[in-house]
Amino acid sequence: ELSIERRFVPESCPRAVRPGDFVRYHYLGAFPDGTRFDSSYDRGSTFNVFVGKGQLIAGMDQALVGMCVNERRYVKIPPKLAYGSEGVPGVIPPDAVLHFDVLLIDLWNSEDEVQVQTYFKPEKCPRTVQVSDFVRYHYNGTFLDGTLFDSSHNRMRTYDTYVGIGWLIPGMDQGLLGMCVGEKRIITIPPFLAYGEDGDGKEIPGQASLVFDVVLLDLHNPKDGIAIENQLVPESCERRSQTGDFLRYHYNGTLLDGTLFDSSYSRNRTYDTYVGKGYVIAGMDEGLLGVCTGEKRRIIIPPHLGYGEEGRGKIPGSAVLVFDIHVVDFHNPSDSVSITVHYKPSNCTVLSKKGDYLKYHYNASLLDGTLLDSTHSLGKTYNIVLGSGQVVLGMDMGLQDMCVGERRTVVIPPHLGYGEDGVEGEVPGSAVLVFDIELLELVSGLPEGYMFVWNGEVSPNLFEEIDQNHDGEVLLEEFSEYIQTQVETGKGKLAPGFDFEMIVKNMFTNQDRDGNGKVTAEEFKLKDQEAKEEHDEL
């Protein structure tokens, strides 16, 4: 009788051999005395055959039924179920009992289809693989018995291909359809949907079922544009970015599977660029349009609008890019200072002008609200002479035409502030500045070009009054003492906000025309006299 001994049965047996199935198996054939007459191992290839169709000796046809892949059976076949009384001349003697040690490697049926088993699927799946999509995935490729024949992981590079247009074996084309990025599935492919009777001529033998353990990393279509997901849009959005604007923003850059490839946060510095001018990849140029200051959005960029087939640095070729951005500020090079008045006293008659001495409080911040500086925390006002270059140009402009008690917000673009370089450790480069200002005191300045004016009539003997020792020469000490007396007695007024000694020295130098440290009567002239002489000469 036929004797079957199951020497090894795998724990998992999803499928067993049935008549009509095609099998691939290894075997050792021997006589009862142990003499070997045949071995598939010696030939280096499995024995491939349909079961139950008369292609095998009857005993083997029966012995294979019910076997699992990786199962090992020891089979004793009597002559009547083997080669009978005739045997096989030169190989099998008549009436021989045959012993076979069989290991089943593969099993399939001509009616099989691609089998898909998903063992992990992300909670969010906004998009699945469709025909003509381009995908990037990792895989381990094995035979049904678990033998590894290929792995993208070993090459440390994804497999990148179009789906459904014939670039893949038909079974893989089918098996990838409907996958989400991040999904993991096992795709089992019968040989007639893989490499068929001939195999691939290298690692994959003919008639082999293939098992691919796949994780999908990336997915796009050549027709895709960018996708924008708004994560946070400020309630107040007075202005949106346009082509030609200059933006400062933070970002995290990841691949579709969440792998981080770059981050401005890790550098502790914003990324600063013009928009719509080709300074960044095309997808980012488009994705940064229409944003508000303070807005957070996700920009998903297909590779043909990113770094293409070649990739760059940590970005692989044909990769979809995901940028989570936070817009810190933006401006346009044509921008001027923006002034918003919050409070103006009813008796606002004296307005600030160039040359006036101002005392004011301010809070300085960036457009995103980050506080830079505050005079309130210092407990003292900030004091300047308006228009004298003591503050950035934008502040000089923002303080014009202001009255005491007025409160206003002044927004200064970087080209009227601290420019591309900023102030190290304090103000970032290319930053828009916001000043909340309250003017507390205003001392009217002198007419432009004057550092000292008389409050009354000028003495006709002015030089003699200054020349106290009447030697015909005025020294700096004499000049300084005289001016100080005029200011203290109210007869004259110095330009407010400047150092007394600096002003006096400057006035004296203007009179000391030959630069010898002394002013003579011939050199000494009032400002209106200088203007008249120049006019006469002209």
From TrEMBL:
Keyword Metal-binding carried by entry: yes
E.C. code: 5.2.1.8
Recorded hits in InterPro entries, A to Z, give: EF-hand-dom_pair, EF_Hand_1_Ca_BS, EF_hand_dom, FKBP-like_isomerase, PPIase_dom_sf, PPIase_FKBP_dom
Single GO molecular function: peptidyl-prolyl cis-trans isomerase activity
Q: Which domain of life is it from?
A: Eukaryota
Q: Which residues form the EF-hand domain?
A: 454-489, 499-534
Q: What Gene3D superfamilies does UniProt report for this protein, alphabetically? A: 3.10.50.40, EF-hand (1.10.238.10)
UniProt-annotated stretches for the region Disordered: 511-538
In which compartments does the protein localize?
Endoplasmic reticulum
Spell out the PROSITE patterns in the cross-references.
Answer: EF_HAND_1 (PS00018), EF_HAND_2 (PS50222), FKBP_PPIASE (PS50059)
The answer to keyword Calcium applying to this record is yes
GO cellular component annotations, sorted alphabetically?
A: endoplasmic reticulum
Q: Which UniProt keywords apply?
A: Calcium, Endoplasmic reticulum, Glycoprotein, Isomerase, Metal-binding, Repeat, Rotamase, Signal
Classify the main location.
endoplasmic reticulum
As its record notes, the protein acts as a catalyst of:
[protein]-peptidylproline (omega=180) = [protein]-peptidylproline (omega=0)
The PPIase FKBP-type domain sits at: 20-108, 132-220, 244-331, 355-443
The function of this protein is: PPIases accelerate the folding of proteins during protein synthesis.
**Record protein name field:** peptidylprolyl isomerase
- Organism name: Gymnorhina tibicen
